[in-house]
Amino acid sequence: MEKQALQESTTELNSLRLRFGSMLQLQFDEEAARYHVRLIGYLENRSIITTLPVKNQRHIPMRAGQKLNIRMMVNDQACAFVTETLQTFRSPYPHAHLQYPVDLVTNHIRKAVRVETRVDGSVTNKSIGDRAKEVTCYLADISETGAHLVTPLRIGKTGDEIRLELDVTIGNIPKRLSIDAILCGRLKVRAKDEERAIHYGVEFMNLDDDLKIGLIAFVYSKLAG
Predict the structure, then answer these.
(1) Which residues, listed in sequence order, are joined to residue 48 by a DSSP beta bridge?
(2) Is residue 1 situated within a structural domain?
(3) Closest CA to 174 of 70, 2, 31, 34
(4) 153-208 confidence digits (pLDDT tens)
(5) Is residue 2 part of a domain?
(6) Domain count of the chain?
(7) Would you say the pTM of this structure is higher than 0.70?
(8) Domain boundary among 86, 108, 130
(9) Residues 139 and 183 reside in one and the same domain
């Protein structure tokens, strides 16, 4: 496993120039589950406004004073802060006011941070159209921007677009990640025993906020190992 020091620092929320509609991860204090909410808006030094978390298609009750952990991705930064619920409203739409944070902890993400861990899943070559077949695969290492892909047979050529379906566990919670990526070329790797395998370098693409947060959380959990 390759470990590098994370560039941790603090900053103010207003300096990040967040876009309204950005996805945030909300975690109730002392609970493992994490929920996705959207940023509706904020007023500096007053409050942050978000949608309410949802579980089983129902809004999760939030009470005033409830402690929360918030995580989000902004460009190349993973950000986190602790806050609490100020008040929730059902009208004109369900939303919550959260306490404006004094500062945030940020980590600048670097492409070199990779972790060696097996991640099982499947891959489909999107570039060959109707001829595409789902092939079992696994990742031998992974970062927030790419991975070392291992397949039992050749699946395409450099530049082909693929779709990865990966089964990961984040904080003891199983999750399936669907990720678009590009084949960057074959890797020369010495075969283990009699394993027949093709090795590729892949670069992730078109990552939305949900996927970025999921990948960062998974990579960090393995680094903390």
Answers:
(1) 42, 98
(2) no
(3) 34
(4) 999 988 888 999 999 888 788 889 999 998 888 888 776 666 689 999 998 888 88
(5) no
(6) 2
(7) no
(8) 108
(9) yes
